[in-house]
Here is the input.
Amino acid sequence: MFMFKQKKYQRDKVMKILVIRLSAMGDVAMTAHVLYSFIDKYPQVKLSVLSKKSFGSFFSSAKIHFIGIDLKYYEGLKGLYELFKILKKEKFDLVIDLHDVLRSNILRFFFRYIGGTKVFVVDKGRKEKRALTRKKNKILKPLKTTVERYIDVFKTAGFEVNPGADNIYDAGVDIPDKITAILPDDENQVCIGIAPFAAHQGKIYPLEKMAETLDYLSTKGFHLFLFGGGDSEKLQLQEWESKFPNCISVAGKFSLKEELQLISRLDLMLSMDSANMHLASLVGTPVVSVWGATHPYAGFTGWRQSPENIVQIDKPCRPCSVYGNKKCYLTDSPYSCMREIRPAMIIEKIMSVESVMRKESLRL
Here is the structure.
């Protein structure tokens, strides 16, 4: 039986806090909204973030200590215990788990019962989300956003944070030449990012309809940047780049930091319910988001993004999944939640966004 006593803490002293959020990209990006607000309000705290090493660009501030790891080196109970022993040397006063998965649960257990460290954990609202996505008798109501759930954890720990929607890259920061080289010379040219892919089919707009959307936007004279990753996605984006004028595929050409810098210079991002929606939110770029099997009510919309810029259709089966990873159960019209969204609906929404309207009026 464990008899370890947890350490007490005082907010007004220099503290060391470890925040755990290992994946996925969009969810890790959303932590930045809260953590940047936190370090501004509590400069006496030494804040560390444990995540996948590829996500370090989200935490560019020198005030945040980023601990990037390769998860494959810390698999299983033994591997996580080795990671705990490394982290224990930092002598954290608090551990805040913003992930609440098996890995983080085990780390939390080690910190609490072996390290004697006070721990706090996010409430993901799993029961509410099951009610939202079940086939029958759905409770269709907006739930707390993921960022709000992160805020709640800090509040439970005794810290008030109120994140804004600031660009993590200041306007005065120099943009690399490789990015400025692909930006239009005319500052009144509308620049739109297009992120047509997602991790699961239920969140992807049909590619033939996306091609129609690109065709219209490109012939309208908008400057389009195509975002994606993976070999098949790159090939598709290259095909569109060669087919439509004013289209540039940036897939595989930039680091995550550079992609963020490019997105920060866009007037708009068109995205699925995917990480690019959150990357754009992180740098203060407006997003038009397209939703199918998932739903904004689950709380994964981009932070401080306008609900007016959401494109979706009402269907009794929506949402059928929190993450879009479940196969559509409609055998006669699978994924009609996406297929029934007309390109004109997306185009109309893009044209109504303030940043686009302003530049269009200057061009006319």
